[in-house]
Amino acid sequence: MSSQVKIFSGTTSRAVAEKIAAAYGQPLGDLTIQRFADSEIGPSFNESVRGCEVFLIQSTFPPSDNLMELMLMVDAAKRASAYKVNVVMPYMGYTRQDRKDKPRVSIGAKVVAEFIQSVGTSRLMTCDLHAGQIQGFFDIPVDHLDGSTITAPYIKSLNLDNLIFASPDVGGVVRTRAFAKKFGAEIVVCDKMRLRANEIASMQVIGDVTGMNVVLVDDIVDTAGTVCKAADLLLERGAASVRAVITHPVLSGPAHERIRNSSLVELITTDTIPLREENEKIKVISVADLFARAIHNVVSHESISSLFI
């Protein structure tokens, strides 16, 4: 006999969680998040989860409070005798810290992976990790969903001629090539050199974009400095138009203003992170159906990979 499924949301991801639950075919569960005067967090379930397969939805952006809130939710569910506690993290913070790229630094993604497992999480469901090998930091099942499953059909609907895809840096070539393969298209690379985090010293285009409609492919846009600079450079090199497609709209600091004033036709993204303000240049496509189908397949013991074939 299958366990009853219950879906709950943390504070930050309420909007997308409601869409996921509706797409799955049931309302969100009743959960209260108490916040003490000193910002301490205390979640409590207002309904029984005993023997249930529980799915807790929360993106960790901003990461610190939201990650702690989610881990306390997992602990509360385990202590309330849930059968399984599954973390649904549309956006997992700290994944840019996936290796030691200089001496005496932490590997934040590994720390977060250990934290998630330490509280008794049964499995993790997430989307477009900054580096796919981060899955290896976990000793529990990880369902790594592909954001291009929902963004690629939108780009196809635009019916763009002379389409080519661009990686905003050398590190994103594998991601860009996989995206371009869906269209049978070629790729170019914007090779950048950084002085420090969020600050670019120089950039050049490797490949010919003359007369082409270019789509920049990335997983995260933070301050939008890279994507806007790349768009300008591609147009200087003769591109007919430049769009960008990403999964996680972190959009910190001046990002929204930069995108409004940029030469991008549009920025296509998902709702793994809620936008903090409206932006006429940003097209948001919901991940709700993708996650709802993944939850259904997990519960019914069907293949997750079948969602992407």
Word description of this protein:
By secondary structure, this protein is an alpha/beta fold. Helices cover about 30% and strands about 25% of the residues. It has helices at about 15-25, 65-80, 110-120, 150-155, 175-180, 225-235, 255-260, 290-300; strands at about 5-10, 30-35, 40-45, 55, 85-90, 125, 140-145, 165, 185-195, 200-205, 215, 220, 240-245, 250, 265-270, 280-285. The model has no long low-confidence stretch (mean pLDDT about 95).
At a glance:
By secondary structure, this protein is α/β, with parallel strands linked by helices. The protein has 8 helices and 16 strands.
Helices and strands in order:
Layout: E1 5-9, H1 14-24, E2 31-35, E3 41-45, E4 53-57, H2 63-79, E5 84-89, H3 108-118, E6 123-127, E7 142-145, H4 148-157, E8 163-167, H5 173-181, E9 187-196, E10 199-206, E11 213-217, E12 220-221, H6 225-236, E13 241-245, E14 248-249, H7 255-261, E15 267-270, E16 282-285, H8 288-299
Parallel strand pairs: 1-4, 4-5, 5-6, 6-7, 8-9, 8-11, 11-13, 12-14, 13-15, 15-16
Antiparallel strand pairs: 2-3, 9-10
